[in-house]
Amino acid sequence: MNDNPVILAFCCHYCAYAAADLAGSMRLQYPANVRVLKLPCTGKVEVNYILAAFERGADGVFIAGCLEGGCHYLEGNLRARRRVERAKKILQEIGLEPERLEMYNLSSAEGPRFAQIATEMTERIAALPPSPLRPDRATVEKNVQEMAAAAQAAVAGDNR
Questions:
Q1: Model pTM score
Q2: Which of 77, 79, 86 is CA-nearest to residue 106?
Q3: Domain-located, residue 2
Q4: pLDDT tens digit string along 113-124?
Q5: Which positions ≥6 away from 128 have C-beta within 8 Å?
Q6: Domain count, the chain
Q7: Alpha helix (H) ranges present in 64-104?
Q8: Is 133 helix (H, G, I), strand (E, B) or coil?
Q9: Taking Cα atoms as reference points, which of 57, 48, 39, 52 lies closest to residue 2?
Q10: pLDDT recorded at residue 69
Q11: What whole-number percentage of the chain has pLDDT above 90?
């Protein structure tokens, strides 16, 4: 059992992040352990970003992008889905549960769905054993903040 897991959510600006914002505006409750990282498009999420999240102590990661066929950058969410599947295989090969990673598609109007996804991921990760890669809580928080800043800087010049 994994008490109070740290979950990192890579969210596209146009849909998933807007849905998270809507969930907040609607005052919907979802676990505070979910850290939201806004990206211009989930197509910018590379496998190494996902693996770095686990390496730096995240217990779970989810990628949330636009609805399939509705990506503002045409195919960014489809590229992200392929990368998530590749990362799941790598996780399994190194001995981490692939259930720690998931991809979701939602529109900007789905605030309640975002809250539901955050809750479902928290419950899923809490049911797993603690990540063997997770350092102490303070280090995880620092690492997540550093990773967020690095990811923001990496995508600042390229909106795909």
A1: 0.86
A2: 77
A3: no
A4: 999 999 999 999
A5: 2, 59, 97, 99, 100
A6: 1
A7: 76-94
A8: coil
A9: 57
A10: 84
A11: 70
Question: Does a structural domain hold residue 116?
Answer: yes
The owner of tokens 């045409």 is 74
Residue 43, classified by CB atoms within 10 Å of its CB into exposed (0-12), middle (13-18) or buried (19+), is buried
Instruction: Give the chain's largest Cα–Cα span.
Output: 41
Query: Cβ–Cβ contacts within 10 Å for residue 132, how many?
Result: 9
Name the amino acid, one letter, at 43.
G
The average pLDDT across 120-139 equals 86
103 beta partners = 63
Q: What is the pLDDT of residues 24-82, one digit of tens each?
A: 999 999 999 999 999 999 999 999 999 999 998 899 999 999 998 888 888 999 999 99
Structural domain including 56 reads 7-155
Q: Which domain CATH number covers 101?
A: 3.40.50
Residue 1 lies in a domain: no
Radius of gyration of the chain (CA): 14
How many of the other CB atoms lie within 10 Å of CB of 48?
11
Question: What would the mean pLDDT of 87-92 be, rounded to a whole number?
Answer: 97
